[in-house]
Amino acid sequence: MSSLQSYLLLSALLFSIGLAGALTRRNAILVLIGIELMLNAANLNFIAFWRYGPTPSKLTGIMFVIFSISVAAAEAAVGLGIILAAYRHSKTTDLDQMNSLKG
Amino acid sequence: MTVIFLILAVLTVAGTAAAMGMRNAVHCVLALTLGFAGVAALYLQLDAQFVGFTQIMVYVGAVAILAVFAIMMTHSPTSVQLPAYSTHWLAGGFVAAAVFAVLAWAIRASAASAQPLPPQPDIDVQQIGDALMHRYVLPLEIMGLLLTAALIGAVVIAMDRKEEIK
Q1: Do A13 and B86 touch (CB under 8 A)?
Q2: Contacting residues of B for A24, CB less than 8 Å apart
Q3: What tens digit of pLDDT does each residue of B17-34 get?
Q4: A89 at the B interface (CB within 8 A)?
Q5: Plot region of A92 (φ>0 → left; ψ -120 to 50 → alpha; else → beta)
Q6: Which chain A residues have a beta carbon less than 8 Å from that of B131?
Q7: pLDDT digits (tens), chain A, 103 positions
Q8: Does B43 touch chain A (CB under 8 A)?
């Protein structure tokens, strides 16, 4: 097993852990954290492919990850703001109890 | 596959698995910082120092703190007794396991993932700054606009509307 393969397998495992968390947890904040983990797995893939690619001096992988991290940070801030607004409305962060849009 | 990679991989997977598996939400976020730090160390291992330190500053520093604050502000006495997992946890776990199986199969079968390690590139922060200021200046500006919009949007969404009426 080559080294790139081991990085890709680790990243697939991270993605699956994040997906499992996003699909099974009841707390909305932990679901958001699961989505962040999936984004992290994608970033790890970018860096691994950049390092093992033919032209690492072109910096494309690094640039992609820097912008991806920025978008993820914006997404986390807005997502947690939405969770706070939903909590203020329905007094819970339990996703199994948040089953109506109108309230 | 070196010993350092194995240690970092075990650390990262243990941290993230604990973050998604523990009952107490605050413990989950603490385990998550371990997982994020492990990913940052993996970036350093892959000679991407700038991205590694960005990961530590943004994820370990900001996103984890933000999540702890959100947990603190949404904590209610009733949420402790509720079960941590959804009623459909078995189906969710099965879907995640199936996704991992397909991804692992694709990675093992692909010829593209059997690359040898190229020589270490000498990337310094000055080159990254040059690239951001020349070739990637438009994406950088758009990112600044997006972060400003996200900042204002998060404040507006999370604002308490009852205060306005008073």
Answers
A1: no
A2: 20, 85-86, 88-89, 92-93
A3: 999 988 888 899 999 999
A4: no
A5: beta
A6: 59, 63
A7: 568 889 999 999 999 999 999 999 888 899 999 999 999 999 999 999 998 888 877 888 899 999 999 999 999 999 999 988 888 888 777 887 777 776 5
A8: yes
B13: its two tokens: 């997977």
Q: Tell me the two tokens of residue A76.
A: 């986390």
B85 DSSP β-pair partners: A25
CB B107, CB A5: distance < 8 Å: yes
Report the alpha-carbon distance of residue B144 to residue B148 in Å, rounded. 6
Query: Average pLDDT in the B61-90 region?
Result: 80
CB contact under 8 A, B70 and A17: no
Q: How far apart are CA B30 and CA A26, in angstroms?
A: 18
pTM of the model: 0.89
HSE (side-chain half, CA atoms, 13 Å) at A89: 17
Chain A: closest CA distance from residue B25 (Å):
7
